[in-house]
Amino acid sequence: MASVFKIPAKNKQGYKWKCVMEGPPDPVTGKRQQVPRVRDTQKEAIAAAQAVVDRMKGGTDTKRAKKMKFNEAAQEWLQDYIITSGVKGKTVEAHVSDINLLNKYYGGANIDKITHNQHQKMLNNLFSEGYEINSIYRYHSTANLIFKWIIKENLRIDNPCQNIKMPKKQQTVLEAKNNALEEKFLERSEIEEFLEVLQNHGLGDDLETFYFLLFSGVRPGEFCALEWPDFNFETHDVHIYKTLHFPQGGSGAYQLTPPKTTGSVRTFDVDEFIVEMFKRLKVTQSSRHKRYKELHDDFVETQFILTNNNGTPFTNWKLVNRMARLMKLTNIKKHATPHIFRHTHITMLIEASIASGSQIDLKTIMKRVGHDDAKTTLKIYTHVTERMMQSSSDKLKIHFQNILTPKDLPRM
């Protein structure tokens, strides 16, 4: 769209022609960019402005861009992304869900018409409607990937997802408490209380499940995917190289998929008492399966360590529900899921090293629990060491109370 008009000028005819064209939005700010050009004739002004706009567009395929809707571009991006990135089921399903939401805002819009301002308003709107911040980040991230693909395909030169300001929620006192690091692992007294309840009130497989989570630090999904050949009773080694995925959300068919990061693939050893516990579990599981097969014809032959009576594997949700039941029988006030044992295991490793006077090898701890990023391990390490130093200070004060509190202080 061009605006062409005369402007006063000190020339023979007393005027010149000015043409103002709409250029593509600023690639950094997303703001509107107009291209004005002044020439002696109308034709020259239009040509000059058009030449600048064409250079700004960088040879984009405007004909294709004007015909393509966002929902079409999103679908083409997704197919390309699946093939080139090798992502697995969960990730693909998440992107499909994201695209479905984005289509509610952009679906029928031309890809060359979507602006930075529109995208900012969409994120703000989602926040106002009560969407979780993590979900909003995910929708934004997927939209960003789609527009990067659009730019790569020469369908536009700017990304409306750049320089976005994410909505921020003011943290409440309760949320601050729940997000505190102390809430992410169990203290020694809490471990002892939970294990006592576990031994007295645990259901079938609960004892083995929660002892293993506590003394191995594995992710619940990794444990659900664990099969008997992955557990070497002779060497006490456990091999982690897969996780369990239920495409239908926890029921029906399941898939064994590789972990998200290469660092999650690992082998570690467990204590003798865990090995003996699992030897007994294998025997009782075999007897349980045998009884079920005698009465039912829907048994599924698998080698999973945690199974239902019909041979199918446990889901993450089953572990969550089992733990919630046990937590209700304790006095522990923390919101604890099976994942809490992962951080608890790290604190136990660090505390054991400090107590024994051994040098703490954070890389070994990270390798054992499958941490690629040292951030979480370092955060827990810092917290535990600071707490133990404070504990030592308190013990010193109690032990030398008489010395630290002199009866007669010199007067000033």
Write structural notes for this entry.
With 412 residues, the chain is mainly alpha-helical. Strand 1 (2-8) and strand 2 (15-23) form a beta hairpin. It is elongated, with a radius of gyration of 31 Å. Helix 13 crosses helix 15 (374-399). The strands form three sheets. It has a three-stranded antiparallel sheet, covered by helices on one side. Strands 4-5-8 form a three-stranded antiparallel sheet. The protein has a two-stranded antiparallel sheet with strand order 6-7. It has three domains: 2-58; 66-152, Tyrosine recombinase, N-terminal domain (DNA polymerase, domain 1, Orthogonal Bundle); 179-347, hpI Integrase, Chain A (Orthogonal Bundle), CATH 1.10.443. The protein has helices spanning 42-57, 62-67, 70-85, 89-106, 116-128, 133-152, 173-179, 188-201, 206-216, 220-224, 272-295, 316-327, 340-356, 362-369, 374-399, 401-404, and strands at residues 2-8, 15-23, 33-39, 231-232, 237-240, 243-245, 255-257, 266-269. Helix content is 53%, strand content 9%. The longest helix has 26 residues, at 374-399.
